[in-house]
Amino acid sequence: MTWKRPFFTLWIGQAISLLGSQLVQFALVWWLTRTTGSATVLATASLIALLPNVFLSPIAGTLIDRWNRRRVMLVADGGIALATLGLIGIFAAGEARPWIIYVAMLIRATGGVFHHPAMNASTSLMVPAEELGRVQGMNATLNGSMTIIAPPLGALLIEALPMQTVLAVDIITAALGIGALLMVHVPQPVRTTPTGALNVRREVGEALRYMQGLPGMFILLGMALAINFVLFPAGSLLPLLVRNVFGGGAQEFGWIESASGIGIVAGGIVLSVWGGFRRKIVTSQIGVIGIGVAHVALGVAPGTLFVLALGAVFMAGFMMAFNGVIYAVLQTTVAPEMQGRVFTLINALATAISPLSLAVAGPVAEALGLRFWYVAGGIVCVLMGSLALMIPSVVNAEQLTAERRAVAAQQA
Question: Is the pTM here over 0.85, yes or no?
Fold first, then answer.
């Protein structure tokens, strides 16, 4: 079909660019680990990567809806590549310092704040609505594959090559991604956004009012925040769970990471072939329930049965691919001209709750044990997913939105 060639040209180019970005991210984190051996340094690096999502997402969404989305992606990719190019010169000169790595990470994270929502908002204009579920399955497969491939490949390159040569891989992959962008036409939505002076407060308010008018949107958002609150710390506490509960070391933790990536790939393949249920929200919430069951299983698995932990993590990754269909729901229900603001606003809210959840999870895990957080978090996921499937405005969100648009079109 006519949509496939331009979209997959863009998608493959961005997949190649993503591989380079993942390699560089791994290399930078490992350099900080090897050079400083400081948990504070690593925590600071993680926090810096979150800051642009929290503070710049509303501005980025407004600009994405105003600007040409193809140019946004080109500038974002180019800016990330320039930051990497600067790092290559610094490492070659032997002047690398942790604070310089922080600055580079901040620039790279800022580029991602603009690039990812622009890509998601463009996808809904390039791909037929009935194919969006499959595309999200492909995205899950891609992300899972990167989880499996990038760390060992990055480790291999770091051992064999100088740091500046490893970083040069990102320049090559970014160039291929930019080349793919230049080869395709990215459709633009009909502009309903004011073209005058930028007023972030006003336009974020418009995005909130728009979301309020979508069936079940605020209910879904509240559930998503609750789920993110319990799941984000679970990933951060996983190394401690492997060491303290299952008596494992670096090798066992590596197996856990690989099991998660393999699960995401497997779920993404199934979803890309199947496409999910007709109501995409059902596929998404079954994914949430499955993730919850997997976390409960991980929390109750006996310390002597590490294989059960591997199975639970695989299941969580598999179901995470299904939950990713929520993006297809948003692409279907949110008008193209509003997607930049809505997507980035959701991202900002979800990211902003992460530091709070980490602050709560640490003391809770120390007082009640690591297992408690996984069991309680899994139960929250199961409850949220089940509740969503019982609320008519949520489970029928796509149909209700389509009916409202049809009525509005007739009135117009």
Answer: no
